[in-house]
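Example S7 (structure tokens).
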């Protein structure tokens, strides 16, 4: 019987897990932060809204990804001890 497609054996950090957790965490935590930040800015046009979403959302996504990756590295190091 062939091996299941979902099965992985990553060496080091499982980047698929990092991407999935980053996505979910950004939606659950980052989206409300961006929404709160948007209340202090006048966003009367679609261009202003899109620009704001990129300027604020991208750093939130990046910082979330860095935090999730750092956690994955930490958890991996704990597993090898």
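Recovered sequence:
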């Amino acid at each position: 019987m062939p091996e299941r497609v979902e099965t992985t054996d990553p060496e080091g950090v499982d980047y698929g897990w990092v991407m999935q957790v980053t996505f979910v965490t950004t939606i659950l935590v980052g989206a409300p932060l961006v929404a709160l930040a948007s209340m202090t800015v006048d966003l009367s046009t679609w261009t202003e809204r899109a620009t704001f979403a990129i300027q604020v959302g991208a750093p939130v996504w990046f910082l979330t990804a860095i935090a999730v990756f750092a956690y994955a590295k930490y958890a991996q190091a704990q597993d090898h001890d």
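Notes on this example. Residues 25 and 64 are 7 Å apart (CA to CA).
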